[in-house]
Amino acid sequence: MNLTIRPRRLRSGENLRKMVRETRMDPSSLIYPLFVREGSGIKEEIPTMPGQYRYTVDTMGEKLESLQNAGVTSVMFFGIPDAKDEVGSGAYAANGIVQQALRRARKDFPEMYLITDVCMCEYTSHGHCGVLHGHEVDNDRTLKLLAQTALSHAEAGADMVAPSDMMDGRVAAIRSTLDEHGFINTPIMSYAVKYASAFYGPFRDAAGSAPSFGDRKSYQMDYHNSREGIKEALLDVEEGADIIMVKPAMSYLDMVAKIRQEVHVPIASYSVSGEYSMIKAGAALGYIDEEKIICETAASAFRAGCDIYLTYFAEDIAGYMAEGKIG
Ligand code: PBG
After folding, report:
1. Among the atoms of ligand 1, which is closest to the Cα of residue 199?
2. 30: Cβ–Cβ under 8 A, 6 or more apart, which residues?
3. Is the CB of 275 under 6 A from ligand 1?
4. Over the stretch 5-32, which tens digit does the pLDDT of each residue have?
5. What is the dihedral of CA 146, 192, 290, 113, to 10 degrees?
6. Quick check: helix, strand or coil at residue 97?
7. Does the beta carbon of 63 sit less than 6 angstroms from any atom of ligand 1?
8. Is the Cβ–Cβ distance between 249 and 275 less than 8 Å?
């Protein structure tokens, strides 16, 4: 055969394949989501997320240390309070669970980069991401509380805040409140393109944050829409978002690729709880190879164009990178 162009030439051996690799990754682009609950001496496995735990402030150090040793230096805190109320006061309490975790981590792990999820749903008795007016989530009244939450996180030692509520105008509200209080250098990573997704199921179980009535479709996006995601991303950049997140990851990598063309800020992709649990379940049944699937899904997010990848597999992935399995 007289074939001039043979794409297989560049696939002939491991050295060459690595030389021409288009997507390169390292552990500094990984963020690990960490659940912290009230109480002490507890490390409890999350039933729908095998291998993931709810820690208390005094037990989380074990996980932070192993992450750091693996080269994962960024974490995102999710709080699980004991008490919830209508207005989610635990979210912005000076001694709330995330604020306590931040102070402790700041002291014990000064090298770690501490990010917080800013939302009301883990703290409201009704489980919605904002305060209610009847059965509606009241956008404008929620903004003040989100800004207050972000400020209390910054005051407790957060390096970056990440609003995940999907209220309109929250990035601008948070930016101006942080600035007024001198936190001009605290970046905002906005969950700008967040879809109403069944992939959050195990998380809601982990955090006890499922809405007590209705769903989140009046604030999170309809998964049939793509242009609307670009609109959300552009809007948040205009409001001052430093990083734009697309969430979930796996079924939404088209959005990562599109938004990559539209904005000039870093893009994060969040591989959510349902993605984690599906891989765990499939592997436990012997249907798929856990390690290979984790590597392939992580690489696909970076290939789509994200700069940052949030994943419950962060420590495993860092290990695979060290072993040269991906990266
Ligand atoms: C809070 C929040 C959620 C997730 C991140 N922040 C839950 C939700 O919106 O219902 C999901 C994370 C995951 O599933 O891993 N609003």
Report:
1. 14
2. 72, 74, 308, 309, 310, 311, 314, 317, 318
3. no
4. 999 999 999 999 999 999 999 999 999 9
5. -50
6. helix
7. no
8. yes
Q: Alpha-carbon distance 23 to 299, whole Å?
A: 7
Quick one: pLDDT at residue 250?
97
From the CA of 19, how far away is ligand 1's center (Å)? 38
CA of 5 to the centre of ligand 1 (A): 47
Nearest-atom number in ligand 1 for the CA of 271 is 15
Q: Token pair 């491991």 is at which residue?
A: 14
For strand 53-56 and strand 43-45, is the pairing parallel, antiparallel, or unpaired? antiparallel
pTM for the model: 0.97
Asked if residue 119 has its Cβ within 6 Å of ligand 1, the reply is yes
State residue 18's pLDDT score: 94
**Predicted local confidence at residue 104, as pLDDT:** 98
Ligand 1 atom at shortest distance from the alpha carbon of 312: 15
| Contact partners, residue 131, CB within 8 Å, separation at least 6 | 86, 87, 88, 120, 124, 137, 138, 141, 142, 145
User: Which amino acids are annotated catalytic?
Assistant: 194, 247
Partnered with residue 243 across adjacent β-strands are 189
Cβ-in-10-Å burial (0-12, 13-18, 19+) of 57 comes to: buried
